[in-house]
Design a protein that fits this description.
It is a single chain. This protein has 250 residues and is of the alpha/beta class. It has one domain: Rossmann fold. The protein is 33% helix and 30% strand. The chain is built from 7 helices and 12 strands. The chain has a 6-stranded mixed β-sheet, with helices on both faces. Strands 2-1-4-5 form a 4-stranded antiparallel β-sheet, covered by helices on one side. The chain has a two-stranded antiparallel sheet with strand order 7-8. A hairpin with a 2-residue loop joins strand 4 and strand 5. Helix 3 crosses helix 4. It binds adenosine-5'-diphosphate and magnesium ion. The site of magnesium ion has 4 residues, from helix 1.
Amino acid sequence: MNIQNILEIKNLHVSVKDTSIINGLNLLIKKGEIHAIMGKNGSGKSTLAKVIAGHPNYKVTKGNIFLCRDDITHEEAEKRSHKGIFLGFQYPVEIPGVSNIDFLRLAYNSKQKENHQKELDPLLFFNLINEKIKKIDMDTSFLNRNLNEGFSGGEKKKNEILQMSLLNSKLSILDEIDSGLDIDALRNIANNINNLMNSDKSILIITHYQRLLDYIKPNYVHVMNKGKIVYTGNKEVATEIEKHGYDYIK
Ligand code: ADP
Ligand code: MG
């Protein structure tokens, strides 16, 4: 079955501790598309990303989320990840005591197992991850360090891209992957994201600066305000926002 709709969100309402944060949001992302969501601080972008990924602190009070037509609104985060949703964090956490390569292998194997695919032993996994890490131009020494511990901002973001590449998800959501990066690191991350994209999957990029979109060309740019998408356009919107600020949208 060839399903074109990767992610479909219908009339989504979300609250956290009785405060409503997302108020009637609709979104359709088809196979092979890159979508960008922009918006002021506090407009609900990260909340949306976390809700799509199944973060337990956020309560969906109304509406539905579908992944390839499968209703995942109330599915656990782990299940969603196995079904093909990857979330790259705005602030990746440091986990001392857990080596990066062990973490990556665990994540990979648990997805493989759930999908009845072959799991890899440490040796075979090393070959796979070695190939992936070289492709994104990241030093292999990061594999043996503890997960994100002492990584610079740019290195943490690169490690998120490594995970994205390894898990090869249907939908990758990247929340402010560009924050804190200098221009070279930004270009490098953007190139890697472009290389990982293909016609079988989709990417949702969250950013509040236009500059990332100079390198990654989205098919659609959505502007979020107060928990809703208030405008959808092409990438020219991002340029106008950069010039005139978010008030331009009104
Ligand atoms: P953005 O990513 O667009 O800057 P967020 O989704 O992070 O916005 O936040 C949207 C609003 O929801 C903010 O007012 C924020 O304080 C609030 N919010 C998000 N998560 C929580 C939480 N766990 N508890 C209380 N308020 C939250
Ligand atoms: Mg945010």
